[in-house]
Amino acid sequence: MVIRMIAIHAFLQEQFSGNDDFFQLEEIVHGSSIWLFGLRSMIDVPQTIGNLAITIEHMNQPDQAIKHGENESDALVAGILAGRLVIFDAHSGQFRIIEPVSKQLNRAVDAPSSESVIQGAMAAFIEDMYTNVGIVREQFKSGRLKVSISPVGTEKSTSLALLYLDTVANPKLVREIKNHLNAKKQIDIRSLQDVSRILGFGKWNLISKFKITELPEEVAAVLEQGRVVLFVDRMPFALILPNSLWDAFTLGSDRNFPRPIMLSIRAVRLIGAFTTIILPALYVALVAVNPEVLRLQLALSVAQSRDGVPYPAAVETIIMLLLLELVLESSVRLPRSVGPTLTMVGGIILGQAVVAAQLVSNLLIIVLAATTIANSTIVGIQNGYLLRSLKYITVVLAAIFGVLGIFVGVVIICGLLAGESSFGISYVRLPFAKDDAEYE
């Protein structure tokens, strides 16, 4: 027993060499000598030692003992890295892994930071996966909600929690997702791209295969639709599978409004999406290729606004769109205290300067402002990025074919969206149910 203790002691010292937060302490509890091993950065050592006498009384539980064998050392290292306390009891000669008093490493549940809520619950998900699962369980205080937790990764172990309602979700969909999680457990998760690899999605997909939200109310709504929710530990949001085009126009909190207002809000979002894709292309088509479509007075007004502009309409539009992308991206990277003010002032000054220098027309500035506002009506950050990318297709085709190019671009975009699917569910179909014929 002494030899085993010395061997394990030496192994842990070697395994955690170079980690100054690793501790090993000897304590006397109830007249018996015990050794404690753990990480100070994850364990509140003083409070843990203060509660040690009570903890020792419950150490006779057989599920806490580490059996002597070839996997004993790996189990101890894994327990320490997970923030648990390893205890060696000299009296019984056994190593045990227990839950200590942990340090507070997670922030409190707070209001959402990337999604605005109107007449809805203000709680948002945090980085701790189990806290997020508990928040969802508050929405479903019944046995319908099922939670399946799977650890993945070799060098960086990460837990994933799969949530679904067994009375609504289709068993084939749940089984297929679980198969992907079990088949690729060796992949370390460092970003959502790694999650996509585990789920079998292509790395060059323009359209995201899952919807991202930090709102528990939204998760509750999609679970009732029969979809599946995935939580990744240390990521403060939920991944909803499969994603749907209509998620860009609907929110669960919309139902807190009267039905006519709810439908009106969703109609505005649809109009915003079409405006984002079509309006810049329409400016290029009517100014550069098909000016005869305009009434004479309007055509003269447009020509007057472009008087002195040295670039073709397509070139000035693409340049200003790219410049606007730089402004939007910088507003995300700048600190919150100066970001909105700096980008607003910079945008106003920049817009006035380029017009005064006759580099672009006044009408284009109006078009770009309307496009940016319309793009902001879309639900979800990733959906907004998608629309910002798709509008370049219609702009390029409008510069070549005019108004006909806009229609061609819209057809191409519709085909691109219709061709996307995840786990056999089309991206453009309406929310599905358990008895869907496709899954029978």
UniProtKB/TrEMBL annotation:
GO biological process: spore germination
One term under GO cellular component: membrane
Domain of life: Bacteria
Membrane-crossing segments per the record: 267-289, 309-328, 340-357, 363-381, 393-418
One Pfam short name: GerA
Keywords assigned: Membrane, Transmembrane, Transmembrane helix
InterPro entries linked: Spore_Ger, UPF0353/GerABKA_families
Similarity comment: family membership: Belongs to the GerABKA family.
Matches recorded under PANTHER family: LEUCINE ZIPPER PROTEIN 4, SPORE GERMINATION PROTEIN
Name of the protein in question: Spore gernimation protein GerA
Organism field: Paenibacillus whitsoniae
